[in-house]
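Human: For the file, kindly provide a plain-text protein record giving the amino acid sequence and the backbone structure tokens, at your earliest convenience.
Assistant:
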Amino acid sequence: MREPTTGTAGRNGLTAAERAAVGKAARSVVPRSRHAEFARDPKAPPPLALLAGQDEHRVPELLPIRYERMALSPFSYFRGAALPMASDLVGTPRTGLTVQACGDAHLSNFGLFASPERRLVFDINDFDETLPGPWEWDVKRLAASLEIAGRDNGYPRKRRHEIVTAAVAEYRRAMREFSRWTVLRVWYAHADVETVESTYAGRFSAARRRKLSRTTEKARARDHLGALRKFTRIADGVPRIASDPPLIVRVEELGVRKERAVQLIDELQGVVAAYRETLEPDRRLLLDRYRMADFARKVVGVGSVGTRCWMLLLLGKDDQDPLFLQAKEAGPSVLEDYLGPSEFGNCGQRVVVGQRLMQAVSDIFLGWVRVTGLDGRTRDFYLRQLRDWKGSADIDTMEPAGMLVYGRLCGWTLARAHARTGDAIAIGSYLGSGTSFDAAIGEFARVYADQNERDHAALLDSVRAGGR
């Protein structure tokens, strides 16, 4: 095997200089200006048909909630339309440089949560669609989400363009910076809330700084004891999850006999035992200190509504020592129809591995399991803590200056996630130091937002006609 001529041998045995050359050569194949292009393939299935295909595998009585939430606004529709956008992106230019893609990197899928060291960090927080894929697709979904959210909030066109291109520029600059870092420095990089505040506070108004402080305080209050107060009531002297239909429904209220509901609790112990085996040994010991106490079905998100999701209540030393876990159904990624199937036979494992690859720090209880559900069908799930200092930005009330800063933070975070799993040197070299790519994605976001508005209008027409 030949020795590297410069730097350290990287992916596929190439040196850093050779990897940079690969990125620069990609400009000739896919000029950066071409990323502005978007035109929906007239032969592609319409978005409503794609969404209806997903409905076939979801809980029927929850589907009205899904479409009610998606119909609220163009941005709400966009949040639930990861599959239609994946269908649209497959025809757009791509360099062939692959990363672990989020698959649904819109701005509401970033947020705050606690690290195992009990520091509040900012990162991507949804990986239901993660799969190895083009880095451009995540960038375009993030950029389009900023344009669409800006329209929903009534921002002027020029301001929206500034917000979108600033986020893309931050991604580009960050990727080029990561390309100069050592491998371990990139892997350890993260954005804790103290760093975020010190970096961006000077760009916030006093009101926005106060709101950021309230957001972090609220996130720290969203812990397991808070969940115990919010989600449970005392029954027969012990805490039980309280029903709040249709969003939280106890098993016995799902048409299951009481005797069967009791039996299911026992069976769930076996489910937890199987999930336990996907954890590291130290996490298994920690989980063993808890006992199963109760569970209920829960509705979460927008695009996820209709998939099966359960909240599990476990108790430790006493009734005031709770651990809430969320078991969320995992199906194939929306990207798999266009990029090929995942290498993992368990869809829950696909989500967990992707999350661990992209996040700087991950939930200590993150794991997966395959179980037989109430309907007798075998399904994959992944599990994580339901609440562990989780917080998110209030997109609907964010003023343009705040959105500009928030978009930049999301751009940096996405670049860091891509740099962990992709070739930061090649991607950074392709992006370059100029603004050609930023401008192209800004134009793409504008055109795609127009299409998104038409798709949202089609959904509203379908709802009014009784089709949803």
Notes: The first strand starts at residue 98 and ends at 101. The chain has two domains: 16-105+129-201+399-464, 224-385. The radius of gyration is 23 Å. Confidence is low (pLDDT under 50) at residues 1-9.
